[in-house]
Amino acid sequence: MRSNHHVFQHLIARCSGLEPITVAVAFPCDEVSLLGALEAARQRLIVPTLVGPRPQILATAKTLGEDVSIYRIVDAETAEDAAAQAVALCRKAECAALMKGSLHTDVLMHEVLKADTGLHGARRVSHVFVMDVPNYPKLLLITDAAINIYPSLEEKVDIVQNAIDLAHVLGIAQPKVAILSAVETVTPKIASTIEAAALCKMADRGQIQGGIVDGPLAFDNAVSIRAARIKHIVSPVAGQADILVVPDLESGNMLAKQLEYLADAESAGIVLGARVPIVLTSRADSAKARLASCAVMALLAHAGRRSQSAQRIEGSER
Predict the structure, then answer these.
(1) Which of 37, 176, 222, 262 is 20 to 30 Å apart from 196, CA to CA?
(2) Which helix (H) or strand (E) holds 235?
(3) Which of 96, 98, 39 shows the shortest CA–CA distance to 66?
């Protein structure tokens, strides 16, 4: 039986009173992806711009009994064309965020990561799963389990910083970051323990800011105070992590899916590090998870606007 959790409801509720953000929805040509965008619009989280083949979008809307005439439709014949046009809308600031429809993730991210016409930001692009785990007392972030396959130490710095910045936007003032490995001791035989130790020292020296970073920590030590005590681990992070940083995509993806399918967790997701927040929806996502992803996207977009406004004010005062 699922515990009575309200993590996602709280995320959605935090958006009440905020203006809906304009979102380019790339290729919403099946019922799941189109309905997800329309439901987010009904919740006043987004104002969707539907990018894809107009006849197919209209036919899908008719099947659903939905009226999409009030929304802008940008005609694009193929999934590749829809991805390119959706990215262009964000690049030109006509849309404040990007949302995946029924096209493959690789097709969309190929356009996002293009050097000349994509949405590259100052940091490495990375993905964060925002997890509602019934047996865990708070929000849990897992990164990166969807974009970076075998990230280098340098890339992990950006992955960690992206997740910390997201945690701030979600209301976690000083997130506890656990750098995961198979063991909690540094050993040359396991490269991820060496990188974990390096990341911790980089955080000590201010190269990673805004969170409390510790590792290597095994998964049990990161999320269970009891397990940490049994192993005599003294750490401000052990047993109470807000962010789990995995060694690579394989381990992270398996961890997130295991929590979802064996621990009754729900997961939203967001891509960070680009010029705009990006939601990569999945056909397997629940309606609540899709709305939570849109809520996270909206909170990030509004935080970005406030940051830009503050920078303009600071610049004018100099």
Answers:
(1) 262
(2) none
(3) 39
Output the six-digit token pair for 111.
């356009």
Give the tokens for residue 307: 């940051």
pLDDT value of residue 4: 52
Q: Could you identify the residue written with the tokens 């750098």?
A: 179
Summarised one tens digit per residue, pLDDT across range 246-278 is: 999 999 999 999 999 999 999 999 999 999 999
Distance CA 29, CA 24 (A): 14
Q: Going from the N-terminus, what domains does the chain have, and what CATH number goes with each?
A: 15-121+278-318 (3.40.50.10950)
Q: Are 266 and 135 in contact (CB under 8 A)?
A: no
Cβ partners under 8 Å of residue 244, min gap 6: 140, 141, 142, 143, 178, 180, 219, 222, 223, 255
| 3-class SS of residue 205 | coil
Q: Would you tell me the crossing angle of helices 79-91 and 105-112 to the nearest 10 degrees?
A: 40
**Tokens 């987004």 correspond to what residue?**
46
Using omega within 30 degrees of 0 as the cis cutoff, is the peptide bond preceding 216 cis? yes
